[in-house]
Specification:
The longest helix has 23 residues. 58% of the residues lie in helices and 0% in strands. It is mostly helical.
């Protein structure tokens, strides 16, 4: 048996094959509809330009610290959920919610949503949120300083 992209034992989808194929066909159909709607009659560089809309009423909120605080809290809660589910969940991958949280809710949804609204990792990055909280509680300054060693 040759294992090209597979590893370990066989894994069956948690949904039926018909539903999987229907969803895959739906994604292909929707992608063609979106191409026709957004770039149907355009050619050249204009056809691949990302569509943008000016939302001046949203600008004050976007420049405030609230989106990053709320997004960071969601990211930290998500990270803790995955870690807790990984440690205390089932050892069988099919029954462990950490698998679904990472592969379906995080990877799949973040790719789709980032394509629609822009870079979400800037808002949801749990490591940046933890760092920001630590810096806010204790300002970043060196733990020790080097003595004066002269001119280099």
């Amino acid at each position: 048996m040759i294992l090209l992209h597979g590893f370990g034992q066989r894994y069956d989808l948690p949904i039926g094959l018909a539903l999987y194929l229907f969803a895959a066909g739906g994604v292909v159909f929707i992608s063609f509809v979106l191409v026709v709607l957004f770039a149907g009659e355009q050619v050249g560089a204009k056809a691949i330009e990302y569509p943008r809309r000016a939302l001046p009423w949203l600008l004050p909120f976007a420049r405030s610290p609230w989106p990053r605080l709320v997004g960071g809290a969601i990211g930290v809660i998500g990270l803790l959920s995955v870690v807790i589910a990984g440690f205390f969940g089932s050892r069988t991958a099919v029954y462990n919610p950490a698998e679904y949280l990472v592969w379906i809710y995080f990877w799949a949804m973040s790719v789709i949503l980032s394509g629609l609204v822009g870079n979400l990792w800037y808002l949801l990055n749990p490591w940046a949120a933890i760092y920001d909280a630590v810096v806010r509680l204790r300002p970043a300054r060196p733990a020790w300083t080097l003595p004066d060693v002269g001119v280099w």
